[in-house]
Amino acid sequence: MFITFLTEAFLICFDHFAECDLYHGNWFYDPMGPLYTNNSCPLLTQMQNCQGNGRPDKGYENWRWKPSQCDLPRFDAKKFLELMRGKTLAFIGDSVARNQMESMMCLLWQASVFLYFVSLYRASFFFQEFVLSV
User: Fold this and answer.
1) Residue 97, Cα to own-chain centre: how many angstroms?
2) pLDDT digit string, tens, across residues 40-80
3) In CA terms, which of 39, 48, 76, 85 is 20 to 30 Å from 58?
4) Would you say the C-alpha torsion 25, 30, 35, 41 has a positive or negative sign?
């Protein structure tokens, strides 16, 4: 469901990709590197830090998906926040959904300040500038 939503949001944002099949392609090595790392995102805990827990290599961070029929631009957090202005984005599920949410927040926090609320069963983020709740 989340992937479908992001695919639709992407296609709305980039009309000329309407014919792009995002599901068929290959991984390629991107020398520009990742959009965030274990050390650059304040939401990631030591438990989620691969290098901090002994993984010696970092090369896996540079791989990106390239659909066969088109080129995907790098993720633009400001464009995404503009697209999501006034909406609520929910990640519902288990630890995999939590990891997806944390990854999204690591991408978005660099573009805008957010408020963070946490309770026993739920974490909430609010981007006041964009009136976006996650």
Assistant:
1) 12
2) 888 787 777 888 888 888 888 899 999 998 888 889 998 98
3) 76
4) positive
Helix (H) / strand (E) containing 7: helix 2-13
Strand partners, 117: 124
Q: Say if residues 37 and 104 touch (Cβ distance below 8 Å).
A: no
Neighbours of 127 (CB within 10 A): 20
Rounded CA-CA distance 50/37 in Å is 10
CA atoms within 13 A on the CB side of 7: 11
Cα distances (Å, whole numbers) of residue 23 to 34, 49, 96, 102: 21, 29, 20, 23
